[in-house]
């Protein structure tokens, strides 16, 4: 199920503005890759090209290729909706559908993909997804209550349950803990740790402790100045990146000597 992602010669644009230049990287399956770097260097932009969410912004496009399981998701005839089913995304701010129950939130992605499922299959899927997101015990007695009635940390786990319900191969997370308290953050980090058995995970974080706790590999993006494109400077085993990086820019950033 979990797949490697091969990115080749990826250039990412907002109209004429080249936001991220020439990324070449392989993201390992069944592992957690953390992306770090200063604000505006293109981490979110890069992440969104991995499931074709970037091009949803008017004028936004990318050149180069992103291969999952050997097939370019930017190839002709590829349906971006199908790509987004295979590559799920969890955002910075928990975004459950406000009018939907907890149960319907979990099933929202499945229904969007026009998959017809019986009541009993749906019940099983709701339970397994909520268990997968470590939320089942907390909500099993109120599945028909609104998703918005949960705490921030629970809402984020609900969004993770919604993402895993469609059985993706890859899960992208853009600063998933930045709106959460420390306890909820640890709960999500534990969850990410468990999830890598089944999924390829890419997480953007500004928290370097989090990157070192949760990821197997870490990539450092940087930007030479305003209006310049971001670059992937270095990517390696997380332990190496935080103790003995190859690149001076990485070293300066992780040791706080940046800027
Ligand atoms: N919708 C957009 N339209 C035009 N330019 C954009 C858009 N979104 C981002 N950018 C630009 O692309 C560059 C990269 O932005 P991006 O949001 O990817 O950075 P980031 O590394 O995620 O930053 P942060 O850590 O603050 O989230 C920035 O120069 C930003 O202004
Ligand atoms: Mg961002």
UniProtKB/TrEMBL annotation:
It comes from the Bacteria. Keywords: ATP-binding, Nucleotide-binding, Translocase, Transport. InterPro entries: AAA+_ATPase, ABC_transporter-like_ATP-bd, ABC_transporter-like_CS, P-loop_NTPase, PstB-like. GO terms for molecular function: ATP binding; ATP hydrolysis activity; phosphate transmembrane transporter activity. SUPFAM superfamilies: P-loop containing nucleoside triphosphate hydrolases (SSF52540). GO terms for biological process: phosphate ion transmembrane transport. PROSITE patterns: ABC_TRANSPORTER_1, ABC_TRANSPORTER_2. This is Phosphate ABC transporter ATP-binding protein. The lineage of its organism: Bacteria, Bacillati, Actinomycetota, Actinomycetes, Micrococcales. The gene is pstB.
């Amino acid at each position: 199920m979990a797949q490697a992602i091969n990115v080749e010669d990826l250039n990412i644009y907002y109209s004429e503005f080249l936001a991220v230049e020439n990324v070449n990287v392989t993201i390992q399956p069944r592992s957690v890759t953390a992306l770090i770097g200063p604000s505006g260097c293109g981490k979110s932009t890069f992440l969104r090209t991995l499931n074709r969410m970037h091009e949803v912004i008017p004028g936004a496009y990318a050149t180069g290729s992103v291969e999952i399981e050997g097939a370019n998701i930017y190839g002709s005839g590829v349906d971006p909706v199908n790509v987004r089913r295979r590559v799920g995304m969890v955002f910075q701010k928990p975004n459950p559908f406000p009018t939907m129950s907890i149960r319907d939130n979990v099933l929202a992605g499945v229904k969007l993909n026009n998959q017809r499922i019986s009541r009993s299959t749906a019940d099983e899927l709701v339970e397994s997804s909520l268990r997968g997101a470590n939320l089942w015990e907390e909500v099993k007695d109120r599945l028909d209550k609104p998703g918005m009635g949960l705490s921030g940390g629970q809402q984020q786990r609900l969004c993770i349950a919604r993402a895993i319900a469609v059985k993706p191969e890859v899960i992208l997370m853009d600063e998933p803990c930045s709106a959460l308290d420390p306890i909820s953050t640890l709960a999500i980090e534990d969850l990410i740790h468990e999830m890598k058995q089944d999924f390829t995970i890419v997480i953007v974080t500004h928290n370097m402790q989090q990157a070192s706790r949760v990821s197997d590999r870490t990539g450092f993006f940087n930007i030479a100045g305003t209006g310049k494109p971001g670059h992937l400077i270095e990517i390696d085993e997380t332990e190496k990146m935080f103790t003995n990086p190859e690149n001076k820019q990485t070293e300066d950033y992780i040791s706080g000597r940046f800027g």
